[in-house]
Amino acid sequence: MRILIVFRYHNMKITDAIQSFLLYISTERRLSALTVESYATDLRLFAEYIGNTHGISDVEDISHLEIRDWQMSLTEKEQHPNSIKRRLVTLRTFYRFLRRQGIVTTDVMAKIVTPKSPKRLPVFFTEKETARIYTANVFPDSFEGVRDRLLLCILYETGMRRAELLSLKNSSVDFHSGTIKVLGKRDKERIIPIENELSDNIKRYFSLKEQKEGCSDAFFVRSDGSPFTQYDVRKVVKQYMSQFSNADKISPHVFRHSFATHLLNEGADIDAIKNLLGHADLSATEIYTHVSRQHLKETYRHTHPREKRKNE
User: Fold this and answer.
1) Which residues are catalytic?
2) How many CB atoms sit inside 10 A of residue 280's CB?
3) Of 111, 169, 183, 276, which is the most buried if we count CB atoms within 10 A?
């Protein structure tokens, strides 16, 4: 049974309003822990600025003028437009909650203009770079080496998000059907197929994991058996992909871009890719068609005889 969280307070402190909002999105909307953490960070920084700069502690006393001032301060700090845009999205969601609960009555965000983000294509690893995960002799023959290599393989071969990777349990893998059950945004489940070699690597990792006492049932664990964190995932990706790739950006999410881009380059149906990625809307997947077109242009420019002569 769903529980409706309703608050009817006047002169509510900003910090109390933020805690009420975080409780709502974690229990009622059931957003992931990473998403809740992101909202919490943005709102904490906002509250600190409003308190330190304007001396305001009650949420009802904040107007669009203070919010514009905060937005300007972010711009002056030369924060990327995407970061500012994300923080404003957080604030809009926060104030929508406050109005719905009757904590504020005015839409202070109505006069706030969100900066336009520069359109950039997703960064991805090349197929040669990802192939080195399987061929390079850099992974130690130990629990840690087997685990780290498997982590990179799963990111690349499934395209799952970092939060989804961290939510995996031992029971998420069905060896009989050759699939992994992934818990996506808003607890939406999807099934991703895995090939035999990946399945065998998971079995090998599980056998090593079983030798550890008091090991967590989280899929990926540290050497002491405790669950992996987002920092651990990022560290593993940086450690190895910095050796394999010259990409402008190296992060767990680049594997997701690589997964989709490589599938498109090999002729996969975009609707199938949408389902594998867990996108709710096809428009979120279509960005990879632009990446694929760019890949075709580069291939043509470097391989067609006429183009090669032009570039010589």
Assistant:
1) 161, 185, 253, 256, 279, 288
2) 11
3) 276
